[in-house]
């Protein structure tokens, strides 16, 4: 495959993604500061250095550019609740965007539950608490509607490393284009507006491209590929983002779908030469492995973005259920049903655990128990 063929297959920010909430999501990255340091974070929240903080003015400019967007306007990080002006950002969002279209991507509310509850639609949001019980308790106390869709309370996520550049480990350009054309993030996730240090507010067709631009902002060899943020920028065709694709996609690890590490209980970080310079982790003792062409592993996941499902993957085959869900069921169902099912996955599992916990005293269990005995006895006869 070559560049024009790949671009023709890719989705521009304004194209509908039927399996995404409300048909699409565009993120506004407010900071990469985070109370966690997950292995393989796509936004570099695991890295040290001074994190970007969007200004209130920049945030409003970004929001206004998305006023007519049909999908979810996501507030993204890092953990956006770490932004010192989070209440002001919420007020701006409430002023311009209806609540049903406002999404928050957060792992912990950090005392901002009241503002978040007033501003965001939990069903247009994403809350992965990454095994943090305090975060679960805070959601339950301060934002009960969101608590129902919290995930990751008892399951670690699996993160495929985004900073193992294909350019470093995969010499065949045609294969790279083929992988880029089928990138999980482009097909299912989000474009992004972010503040690139020294350059200002920029629009990217992909949140990983934006993350690369922010993290490499000090590198004079990296071009300023972001587009000007103006009303309706997201309507531009994929061709207008060709420079971003040409530069960032080949420096990205997402299409490789590497097996990766657990987000919380990972053992080491994986990075390749292109990004080695920025990979200085918050935790100085964390092991960093340099991936080269020779050491690039064969084991991959079926679907990079199925973080929670992939936690149970022990091989490419074991990731099949998550992949099936994402590539068949999620695409086949209408967007509303799909969102409803997805958001209730966690509450179903909680209800089942609850019922299971009641079994010694429950009448339901007694009925099932008797039914089970009756059927098995009959069979034995
Ligand atoms: S930058 Fe990476 S994640 Fe984004 S579309 Fe390109 S290959 Fe996919």
What does it look like?
This protein is an alpha/beta fold. Among the domains are: 14-156 and 188-233, Aldolase class I (TIM Barrel); 332-380, no CATH class. It has 15 helices and 11 strands. It has a 7-stranded mixed sheet, sandwiched between helices. A two-stranded antiparallel ribbon has the order 5-9. The chain is globular. The protein starts with a helix and ends with a helix. Residues 315-319, 349-365 and 377-381 have low confidence and may be disordered.
Indicate the mean pLDDT.
84
Outline the biggest β-sheet: 7 strands, mixed
Structural class of the helix and strand makeup?
Answer: alpha/beta
Strand content is 5-15%
Instruction: Assign the CATH superfamily of one domain.
Output: Aldolase class I
CATH class annotation of one domain: Alpha Beta
N-to-C CA distance: 63 Å
Tell me the number of helical segments per DSSP (H or I, 4 or more residues long): 15
The portion of residues assigned to helices is 25-40%
CATH topology of one domain: TIM Barrel
Q: Which stretches are low in confidence, meaning pLDDT under 50 for 5 or more residues running?
A: 315-319, 349-365, 377-381
In the sheet with the most strands, the strands line up as 4-3-2-1-6-7-8
The geometry reads as globular
CATH architecture call of one domain: Alpha-Beta Barrel
How many strands?
11
Radius of gyration: 22 Å
Bound molecules: iron/sulfur cluster
